[in-house]
C-alpha cells in the first residue's frame, strides 16, 4: 500500500514538473520570487499583436514570426520556408547571428521571404528593474535595456542586414516603462496572438495543431533555434498545412499591425 502511495506521489510530481517546463506562461513559483523582499516584482505585460484580416474565406492572413534566441538554426523550419516560398519575420539576437552565418546568408539571399528584426544583443529580458523571468535575470535598468536593443541592432547592421524597425525582447515580457523607452528609440514592439511552440518545449503534434489552427489576423510566435527539439518538426509540418489551406502569409512590415500595451501606436 505504502509503495503504491509513494509511487503515485512520485508520478504526480513528475507530471507537474514536466507540465511546468512545457508551459512557459505558468513558470515554477521560484522563477517569480523577487530578488529582494524590499523590491516588489515589477508589473510585467506580454503584449498581443494582430494584423488586419483578409476577410477572404479560405485565405486567412497570418504573420509567422520566429525567434532566433541562441544556439543553432533549425534547418527543418528554414528549409521548409525556403522550399515552400513562405514569407516570415525572424527576430535575431547578436549571439545567434555570430553562430549561424550560413543561415544568415540564406536570409539575405531571400529578401522577398525574410524580414529580419531585433531580438536583442544577449537575450536579456527588456525589463528595466531587476527581476527574474523564467529564471532569466532582466536587464535591470533603463541603460541596460537600451544596450540590449542597440547592441542587437548594431550586430544586425554589421552582418549586412537592414536596420531593424521592430524589437521583441527575450521572454516577450516587458514592464511598461521599458516599452516606453524602446518606443522612444523608434521601435515597434512585437507581441503575438498565437503561442505556436510554447517556447520550443511542446511536442511536435501539439505544436503543429496550434500553428495550423491560426486564424485570419493572427501573429504566430515560435522558435527557429532549437534543431534538437520535437517542436520544430511540428512547426515545419504546420507551415505546409497552412499553405495547403490557402493561407495568405505576410511579414510584419507588409501590413498595419496593431498591438496592445502601447507597443505599436
Ligand atoms: Zn528568444
UniProtKB/TrEMBL annotation:
UniProt KW Cell cycle keyword: no
Q: Which UniProt keywords apply?
A: Signal
**Entry's InterPro entries?**
Glyco_hydro/deAcase_b/a-brl, NODB_dom, Polysacc_deacetylase_ArnD
General function of this protein = Is involved in generating a small heat-stable compound (Nod), an acylated oligomer of N-acetylglucosamine, that stimulates mitosis in various plant protoplasts.
Give one Pfam hit by family name: Polysacc_deac_1
Q: Which superkingdom?
A: Bacteria
Q: What is the lineage of its organism?
A: Bacteria, Pseudomonadati, Pseudomonadota, Alphaproteobacteria, Hyphomicrobiales
PROSITE patterns, alphabetized: NODB
Give the Gene Ontology MF terms in alphabetical order.
hydrolase activity, acting on carbon-nitrogen (but not peptide) bonds
Q: Which residues form the signal peptide?
A: 1-20
This chain belongs to the protein called Chitooligosaccharide deacetylase
GO biological process terms held by the UniProt record: carbohydrate metabolic process
Question: Residues in domain NodB homology?
Answer: 60-265
Keyword check for Metal-binding, yes or no.
no
| PANTHER family to which the protein is assigned, alphabetical | GLYCOSYL TRANSFERASE-RELATED, SECRETED PROTEIN
**SUPFAM superfamilies assigned to the protein according to its UniProt record, in alphabetical order:** Glycoside hydrolase/deacetylase
Amino acid at each position: 500500500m505504502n509503495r503504491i502511495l509513494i509511487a503515485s506521489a512520485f508520478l504526480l510530481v513528475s507530471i507537474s514538473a514536466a507540465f511546468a517546463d512545457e508551459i512557459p506562461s505558468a513558470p515554477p513559483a521560484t522563477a517569480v520570487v523577487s530578488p529582494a523582499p524590499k523590491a516588489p516584482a515589477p508589473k510585467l505585460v506580454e503584449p498581443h499583436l494582430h494584423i488586419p484580416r483578409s476577410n477572404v474565406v479560405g485565405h486567412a492572413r497570418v504573420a509567422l514570426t520566429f525567434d532566433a534566441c541562441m544556439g543553432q538554426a533549425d534547418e527543418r523550419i528554414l528549409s521548409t520556408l525556403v522550399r515552400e516560398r513562405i514569407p516570415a519575420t525572424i527576430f535575431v539576437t547578436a549571439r545567434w547571428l555570430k553562430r549561424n552565418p550560413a543561415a544568415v546568408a540564406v536570409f539575405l539571399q531571400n529578401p522577398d521571404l525574410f524580414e529580419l528584426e531585433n531580438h536583442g544583443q544577449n537575450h536579456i529580458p527588456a525589463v528595466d528593474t531587476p527581476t527574474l523571468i523564467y529564471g532569466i535575470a532582466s536587464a535591470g535598468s533603463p541603460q541596460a535595456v537600451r544596450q540590449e536593443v542597440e547592441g542587437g541592432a548594431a550586430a544586425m547592421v554589421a552582418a549586412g542586414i537592414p536596420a531593424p524597425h521592430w524589437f521583441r525582447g527575450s521572454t516577450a515580457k516587458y514592464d511598461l516603462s521599458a516599452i516606453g523607452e524602446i518606443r522612444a528609440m523608434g521601435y515597434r514592439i512585437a507581441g503575438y496572438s498565437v503561442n505556436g511552440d510554447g517556447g520550443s518545449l511542446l511536442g511536435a503534434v501539439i505544436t503543429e495543431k496550434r500553428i495550423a489552427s491560426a486564424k485570419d489576423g493572427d501573429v504566430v510566435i515560435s522558435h527557429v533555434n532549437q534543431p534538437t527539439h520535437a517542436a520544430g518538426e511540428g512547426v515545419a509540418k504546420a507551415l505546409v498545412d497552412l499553405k495547403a489551406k490557402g493561407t495568405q502569409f505576410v511579414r510584419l512590415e507588409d501590413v498595419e499591425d496593431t498591438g496592445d500595451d502601447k507597443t505599436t501606436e
